[in-house]
Amino acid sequence: MADHGGQIPDGTFEVTNLQVATEPGIMPFNILDPTLTCTISATFQGQGSMTWLNMKSHKEEFEARFFAEAIGIPPSDINLGVVKGHLVEGQDTYTLKLQVPPNTFQVGLYEVGVVVTFPLWIGTLGYYEGLIVQAATTAA
Question: Which CATH class is domain 3-135?
C-alpha cells in the first residue's frame, strides 16, 4: 500500500499523488514496457502557514528526486532523475513530470517513489512511496 506525507514547521505540506504512464494521454498503468519511454508524475501541495507563504513569496527552489527500488532479482535500484523548480505566489499545488527514457527499467518489479525537498529549508520535505510497477515486455 502506498504511503505518503510530509512535514513543514507549521501548516501542511505533502506529496499527494504519484503515477506512471507509458504514453501521453493514456491512463496511468502499473505495467510498463521497459523498451518505451514512460512518464512519472508527482503532485505536492502546501497550505495554511506563514512558513509556506514565506517560501512562496521568496520563490524557494524545490527538488523532486524520483527513484525505483528493485523487488527481488534481477533488477537493480534506479535513480530515475531530479525535477527542479520554484514555488510561485498564488499557487499551492504543483504537478511535476519526469520523462524516463527507454531501457531504464529492466524486466522485473519495482517500488517507485519520490522525495520533494527544499535545499534552503532543512527539515521541510514530502514523500510518496509504495507505487508498485512491473516492467514487462509483451510476447509477440
Answer: mainly beta
Strand blocks (E) in 1-103: 3-7, 12-21, 31-32, 38-47, 61-71, 78-86, 93-100
Which run of H or E residues covers position 115?
A: strand 108-117
- The pLDDT of residue 49 is 83
d(CA 112, CA 106): 14
The lowest-confidence range among 8-12, 46-50, 61-65, 101-105 is 8-12
Q: Would you state the pLDDT for residue 140?
A: 42
> Which of helix, strand or coil describes residue 102?
coil
Mean pLDDT value of segment 24-35: 78
Q: Per-domain residue ranges for the chain?
A: 3-135
pTM tops 0.85, yes or no: yes
Which residue carries 503532485 as its cell?
Answer: 43
The H or E element spanning position 53 is helix 50-57
Query: Which DSSP state fits 73?
Result: S
